[in-house]
Amino acid sequence: MEQSWQQLAPIACPTPKSSARPGHAHVIQDGTAHPTRILLMTDAEAADWLTAAAASRD
How far apart are CA 23 and CA 21, in angstroms? Predict the structure, then answer.
């Protein structure tokens, strides 16, 4: 993890603790790592979700 982090995000130090929970990641903003949650979807699930969201706006 440490070596990968230094290659992918060398401006963000120190390396944050990793999470074993699916859908949890870190976003780098202004050289700082921020924990966040991400959606884990297939392409078809994402397309269905976006279609439903667009339809609900009408």
Answer: 6
Judged by average pLDDT, the poorest of 8-12, 28-32, 45-49 is 8-12
Residue the block writes with tokens 């982090």: 5
Give the total number of structural domains in the chain. Answer: 1
**Closest of 22, 23, 26, 30 to residue 1, by C-alpha:** 26
Give the predicted TM-score (pTM) of the model. 0.49
| DSSP string for residues in 1-58 | -HHHHHHH-TTS-SPPPP--STTEEEEEETTEEEEEE-----HHHHHHHHHHHHHHH-
- Range of 24's domain? 2-57
